[in-house]
Design a protein that fits this description.
Blueprint (H helix, E strand, L loop, with lengths): L2 H27 L2 E4 L2 E4 L1 H10 L3 H7 L2 H12 L1 H22 L22 H31 L27 H19 L1
Antiparallel strand pairs: 1-2
């Protein structure tokens, strides 16, 4: 990786740290804390949230009929998401052990916590559980796929690709035949080192 690319990645990491600090400040503004993995709101905030909740029947009356009719289509996707989750978890358990790739922790990607918000009615909470799970599975699968790609084929594409995973910036340049073997070895070593720091 070139020095300018390393500098850009360092700036991105610094910006991510800044964003996390800002999120922490917002927690204070909305009067909650995370204690041992539990979300704890101040009593006054919890009381106010209950006052803001839109009752289920009012919520349904305000919803367009076509939106209600699409619900079975949306919820039917839970089946392929659960199957994907199971298969990718099994794949990782078997293959990552053989390859020496550090395993991805599901809990780092799948967060189901919005149902604790007292200003949401039951249906909204269900929707939030569904979205938290499905988007978490996508993030989980993406990281497993990214680590797999970093292990087997860490080569950048010839054309720009939107939404690349975190490992992509360190990949070998497209067309760098001379650097391919060394680049693959470096990518595998980097994966293992990252795993030993986080594992």
């Amino acid at each position: 990786m070139t020095n300018p690319m390393q500098e850009i990645l360092q700036r991105i990491e610094a910006l991510q740290d800044q964003l996390e600090e800002e999120i922490s400040k917002r927690r204070e503004a909305f009067r909650y804390q995370v204690e041992n993995g539990r979300i704890v709101f101040e009593d006054e905030a919890r009381r106010r949230h209950r006052e803001l909740r839109v009752r289920f029947l009012v919520f349904i009356r305000r919803t367009r009929p076509m939106v209600v009719l699409t619900a079975p289509v949306i919820y039917s996707l839970i089946i392929p998401f659960v199957i994907l989750d199971i298969f990718v978890t099994i794949y990782q358990a078997i293959c990552f052990s053989v390859y020496g790739i550090p395993k991805v922790k599901r809990r780092d990607h799948i967060r189901i916590d919005r149902h604790h918000l007292a200003y949401l009615n039951g249906l909204q909470k269900l929707n939030c559980v569904y979205c938290g799970y499905c988007n978490g599975v996508v993030a989980y699968v993406r990281e497993i796929a990214g680590r797999t790609e970093a292990y087997w084929c860490p080569i950048k594409h010839a054309a720009r690709v939107d939404g690349t995973h975190a490992h992509y910036a360190g990949f070998i340049e497209f067309g760098d035949g001379e650097g391919f073997e060394a680049g693959v070895a470096a990518s595998r070593n980097k994966l293992r080192k990252e795993g030993s720091r986080t594992g």
